[in-house]
Design a protein that fits this description.
The chain has three helices and twelve strands, in the order E-E-H-E-E-E-E-E-E-H-E-E-E-E-H. By secondary structure, the chain is mainly beta.
Amino acid sequence: MAIELKKGHSFDLTKKKPSLNKIIVGLGWDVRPGNSLDLDAVCFMLAANNKLVADDYFVFYNNLRSGDRSVEHTGDNRTGLGDGDDEMILVNLAKVDPRVEEMLFVVTINDAFTKHHHFGMVENAFIRIVNVETNEEILRYNLDVDYSEATEVEFGKLIKEGSEWKFDAVGISTEKGLQGYVDIYA
């Protein structure tokens, strides 16, 4: 049974699961009836200085693989229809460039400002970590806070501590846009 995290909680991923190597970071949501939104999951792979290791360590729909090939986005889902993960990011923890100290997973709404879209039009959002080799869902964080003014939400992050990785359930909303994130981390 998966660990259910709440906003701000952490889980020592590789300390509790020492053999864990390949994971799926599954991100899901439902668009409230009557709305049509295109949400996008992105991953920023950050060094100790809180900046991208290199430009190709920003993984999203236009750059599906990280420079070290350890992180792979499986592709853009433009409707959010269906059950389960709407977008997935595969991570091979053993192959992550040693300069990467943190992987931040953010979900943005495409053209949110132009179309006046926001996370109040979204429900049942979650992020989960699955062991690729066993298909075991290790943890899940259901974002049950009202993000009605937000155009992006930081769902969670993987943080390296020595040789171990932990997961933090973040749940922070913003209105800076995807370019705003790129401006911070590039």
